[in-house]
Design goal:
Layout: H1 2-19, H2 25-40, H3 44-48, H4 51-60, H5 64-75, H6 81-93, E1 107-110, E2 121-124, H7 126-142, E3 157-160, E4 168-169, E5 174-176, H8 178-184, E6 194-195, H9 198-201, H10 206-216, E7 222-226, H11 229-242, E8 257-261, H12 266-275, E9 281-288, E10 291-295, E11 303-305, E12 311-317, E13 346-353, E14 360-370, E15 375-381, H13 395-409, E16 415-423, E17 426-434, H14 442-456, H15 458-464, E18 468-476, H16 478-487, E19 500-501, H17 504-515, H18 517-520
Parallel strand pairs: 1-5, 3-6, 3-7, 7-8, 8-9, 16-19, 17-18
Antiparallel strand pairs: 1-2, 4-5, 9-10, 10-11, 11-15, 12-13, 13-14, 14-15, 16-17
Length: 521
């Protein structure tokens, strides 16, 4: 097996070297835009927005790629999920052909949607499935860049903790979590390594699936672990307790890599590391229902955008000129391409894809740490920030503050959320922190949290001296957060608890806590 691991790693390294391209990021993205517009020009969407004319005019100019983007930006409007669904994707759901992308859409991914009560349906075309497979293989081969991953790990099992592969048949299409759809499409050669296997993966009830995985865990030799941090942590704790382990490496001695997506790892890192008996390489990916956006390619660097994965990116500065206080795009928002982004500026992402999304606001915000290499960090969501009075508090600020709070009081805080409230004629923030360990009183926690946020965010510090009058903290057992998600039908798989409670969500949360105080205590 050691020889096999060496051969597999060498093969992956060779493929990774052959994949290297001489194209710059802007060149690759210019090419990607053309490769999206050309096949889509005869779709209903392409005819509506004159893709053929855009292509012809761009070719007639002396600078076809630059002109193509200018014309694309000027002629095609920006879409939210609601407008894209209302005007276009609903037709594909009804079985329409050649709506936004050639052919008929056979799969729709149900997003984990933290900001809305209902799941969103994102089209998943055959071309996007191919793009996802291609990027996944490239991400796998890039692991040869991490010298700490031992060769024998490449011959071990992969445990992928995702949604059910038993998809819902809606007549003209199937729907389910992206992770479930992707698992149902795994190549035949990977089936030998894939765990929990076809039978368990089909289970739709999340708690039942976790129990089955726990029961079979001793039969597997896991080298790679994939999943959302909250659910991976719960699974590992259950396995540890069930088999009476000191740490998970007593059962899976070859566990070497944990790949995660969707949320910051920092609130979970300390507890996850305590569950391990030896160091594990944590690799971040940016995989959304709309496509595979970025992944961690090299140690010591941030995630890098995928320039040739069926997605064309545009970036809108996330500021008051382009977004209102609710995170909605203002009319006339200004987007830029990859060659115009600046370091350390927060941007909302627009994507156009081979699944038929066009200038679509995905809802995430990112910050470039190296524009030349396309390195990014995810800083939050356009709807998940607080700016009641100009404090401009991002999820990135929140994650760092909670990490510092956890360190100061030596407690794990894997889940948290915050709501903005009126405070007389001014404002307040109410934080809810999830921890199962003894914690200081709310006032003590609030003072430290406030101090950290003031140090992290100058705007927040200014407003704490004027309009933002009070910071409140309530600590709760972590299961309160997961129980609320379960009752809202957003439990397991790719689901995440919203970091900011806005509009009716905060009242729903308060009602839940009040109605279930005795049951959950």
């Amino acid at each position: 097996m050691a020889i096999l691991g060496k051969l597999i790693k060498r093969g992956m390294l060779l493929r990774h070297k052959l994949k290297q391209s001489d194209m710059t990021l802007p060149e690759a993205q210019n090419m990607q835009l053309f490769h999206l517009l050309h096949p889509a020009q005869h779709t209903e969407f392409g005819r509506k927005w004159n893709f053929s004319t855009l292509i012809d005019h761009a070719r007639a100019s002396g600078l076809p790629h630059q002109e193509l983007y200018r014309l694309f930006q000027e002629n095609v409007p920006v879409y939210s999920y609601n407008s894209m669904y209302r005007d276009w994707w609903c037709k594909a759901l009804d079985g329409g052909v050649d709506v936004c992308w050639p052919g008929q859409v056979k799969y729709f991914a149900l997003s984990s949607g933290t900001s809305e009560s209902a799941s969103k349906r994102i089209p998943l075309t055959d071309d996007m499935i191919k793009a996802l497979k291609k990027t996944s293989i490239n991400q796998l081969t890039s692991m040869t860049n991490f010298p700490e991953i031992p060769e024998q790990a490449y011959t071990r099992d992969w445990l992928m903790l995702g949604g059910s592969t038993d998809l819902h048949d809606r007549g003209s299409y199937y729907e389910g979590d992206l992770s479930g759809i992707a698992a149902s499409k795994l190549p035949f050669w990977f089936q030998k390594f894939y765990k929990p296997g076809r039978k368990i993966s089909q289970i739709k009830v999340w708690d039942e699936k976790i129990e089955e995985i726990m029961a079979h865990a001793h039969l597997w030799d896991i080298g790679f672990l994939v999943g959302v941090p909250a659910w991976v942590q719960i699974l590992l704790e259950k396995i540890r307790d069930h088999y009476k382990l000191t740490h998970i490496h007593e059962l899976w001695p070859n566990l070497s890599v944990y790949t995660y997506s969707g949320v910051s790892i920092e609130p979970y890192r300390k507890n996850l590391e305590s569950l391990m008996g030896k160091p594990v390489t944590f690799i971040e990916t940016y995989l959304a229902s709309e496509g595979f956006m970025a992944y961690h390619k090299n140690p010591g660097r941030d995630m890098e955008l995928v320039a040739d994965g069926g997605i064309f990116f545009e970036f809108v500065p996330f500021d008051e000129a382009n977004f209102d206080s609710e995170g909605e795009l203002r009319p006339g928002c200004q987007a830029v391409m990859i060659d115009q982004v600046q370091k350390d500026v927060d941007y909302a992402i627009l994507i156009s894809t081979c699944a038929g999304a066009w200038r679509y606001l995905i809802g995430d915000t990112v910050r470039f740490t190296n524009p030349h290499t396309g390195e990014i960090i995810i800083t939050g969501r356009t709807k998940h920030f607080l700016s009641l009075c100009g404090e401009h508090l991002s999820v990135d600020n929140m994650n760092h503050a909670i990490e510092k709070l956890s360190t100061e009081f030596q407690i794990d805080i894997p889940e948290f959320t915050v709501a903005g409230l009126p405070h007389g004629s001014l404002f307040a923030h109410h934080w809810y922190l999830g921890t199962d360990e003894p914690a200081p009183d709310g006032e003590t926690m609030a003072k430290s949290l406030d101090r950290f946020l003031c140090a992290l965010n100058d705007d927040y510090a200014v407003e704490r001296g004027s309009a933002l009058r009070e910071i409140r903290v309530t600590t709760l057992p972590v299961d309160r957060f997961y129980e609320w998600m379960k009752r809202r039908g957003k439990y397991g798989g790719q689901a995440k608890f919203p970091r900011v409670l806005k509009k009716n969500q905060h009242q729903e949360w308060l009602d839940f806590l009040n109605q279930n105080a005795n049951i959950l205590s």
